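Case study 2.
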Amino acid sequence: MNKKKTLLVGAAFLLGAVIPAHAEILVGFVTGLSGPVSSIGVPNAKGLAAGQAYLGEVDGEKVRVIQLDDGSDPAASTRNARKLVEQEKVDFLIGTSGAPQTLAMATAAIEMKVPMVAISPIAPVPAGEGGPWVVQTPQPTPLLVQGIVDHMKNRGIKTVAFIGFSDAFGDLMYNSLSEGAAKAGIKVVANERYARSDNSVTAQVLRALSTHPDAIMLGGTGTPRCAAGDRAVRARLQGTALRQSRHDQRRLPAARRQIGGGYHLPDRTGDRGRAASREQSDPQGGAGIPRRL
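Prediction:
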């Protein structure tokens, strides 16, 4: 009887070796469903879910996604990346919303030698042993900002103030602006920073405006970026002193002109509020194509 059982168990193992198991592709996805960058993290999650619904398998292998919320916290991004790799045994990582969070996650991915797709712009990271392990889907930040600089140059802007996040993304935007502006003959007259979680950017806006810039560039993303832009416009409409802009006064004699990630702020004129209320800033990015020329 015991011999018969042994033969049955052996046959089962042999059959298991002959018939391959149906594998699956396991994806570890980290995003900010809460916290300051949730305005980007939530759409990212919806986009990935739509992609998985559209293409649920590759070459007959099912794609399964394990999603974790990092709460917009870089430390949580690192913990989640390690949990997905060490406990869930994912094949590769995708993440996350926000440059500091993505950089923290990329550092962990390189250390663990796990492929990662970065969906937020970060500074170039080391390839790592056996790498590169990290690829980025967003365009390089210098390329993004160069379009804004070129537009400012074409509009005759000579000075620009910067208001951006006090984190890795803010550094990327400011450094790219400084480099591009220097080549274009545009002087950066202010570098003001604020945290994504700050409730007010009034002080930063007023200090930037006190330098009398021709334009203000916003180095931020999501809802916190819009708050800074709206505060800059309100401060200007309330009569903050600003040097008169000599161009486009007839075409746009009101409060502002959006230039990519910033606002061109002409001098005070009569029709203050109407054009400002008609123009809408881009809620998702620190830079973009001007909506009105």
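The mean pLDDT is 75.
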